[in-house]
Amino acid sequence: MEQQQKVRFKRDFFLFILAGSFLGLYSGLYDPSFNNYLNDIFHISEVARGGLEFPRELPGFLVVFTTGLLIFLPDVRIALIANLILALGLFGQGFLSPDFTWVVVWMILWSVGAHLYMPLESSIGVSLAKPGEVGKRLGQLGAFKTAASLIGFLIVWVGFEFFHMSYRTVFALAGFCGLAAALCLLLMTPQKSRLKRQRLLFKRKYLLFYWLNVLYGARKQVFLTFAPWVLIKIFHQPVSTFAILGLVGTLAGIVFRPLLGRAIDRYGERLVITLESISLVFICLGYGFAREVGIGSLAIWLVYTCYVADQLLFACNMARATYLNKIVDSPADLTPTLSMGLTIDHMVSMTIPFFGGLLWMKMGYQYIFLMAAVIALMNLYAALKMKVGEPAESKSSLKP
């Protein structure tokens, strides 16, 4: 029986890595294309681009409620449903979007699937890790996902640079990747928790984790929305540039993510998030003032460097998941608290881009990144307040 469990565990971990690889491929196709798609096809303004983040991020705010509706299912099955919804949204954007209104409709559906899956990825990854190796496991999963996205970036770069690839083709390929990930999750063994999970979970003990998510939501949307927009509107960069930058970030991420996972296990989440915050301050200043300090082509190369460094630092979000895993009262708290954290960060990220767009229009894009630098300093202060104990799965009081 024990041998069968080991075989099943290895099989499930392989399938989960494969699912993550397909999702990495989808990400490599979709991420470098979306902003240029909005600019090239619909020519939207900075304010409209910022305002679009409200409907795009609304499913993230509601994720704790959508997870609650499916609470009777194991995590793996909820993840399966999430990827089917994601794939449908991608196909809709590619083939059923005659005008911008329909783009928004299908984008919201895609967002429902993407955000529903986000907390589950960490939760399932933790469940497939041995005690004391959670950071290592999440680092391995992230490395495979990052490596797969390399192929997606290559396809976009080669396709747009040499073969006049259409955005419709990009969305179709990304949609098929979502379906393939769903198939992998379907083949995994669903493990029902022996501990009762709560639909909504907000505990005073986890306040610092929630606050870290608020700051992450603000930081995330400033960079996801306006960093690409700086390259598009200020430096006039095409979609192939984003594919190349994605390639560089992906290659670096293959090495960086596993090292980051080991650093979390060895040095702890506090140091990792502290260093992340300090780095973000300099990245913010680089985005905002590259044109002022750069001469000729130096300015654009400085922004390229900031973009790649920023892309790598997004991996530090795994430190928030491992931090929570060490402070939760029981393993049953993990998924609902991750979902609650995602909901809280989206309370911020839904509104920040709209006001950021107004700030860009009224005062200039530099002020957006000055605001982001202040957020990074707040994140630094929060990191210094972190205290961690043993991972939840190692606490003897939690034995069933």
Question: Which characteristics define this entry?
Answer:
mainly alpha; 15 helices; membrane; Major facilitator superfamily MFS_1; MFS
CATH C-level class = Mainly Alpha
Proper CATH architecture = Up-down Bundle
Low-confidence stretches: 193-198, 394-400
Kindly, what is the distance between the CA atoms of the first and last residues, rounded to a whole number of angstroms?
19 Å
**How many helices?**
15
In sequence order, what are the helices and strands, one letter per element? HHHHHHHHHHHHHHH
- Annotation, overall tally of beta strands: 0
Beta-strand percent range:
under 5%
The geometry reads as globular
Structural class designation: mainly alpha
Considering the protein shown, what is the CATH homologous superfamily?
A: MFS general substrate transporter like domains
CATH third-tier fold name = Growth Hormone, Chain: A
Keywords: Membrane, Transmembrane, Transmembrane helix
Membrane topology: Multi-pass membrane protein
Subcellular location: Cell membrane
Main location: membrane
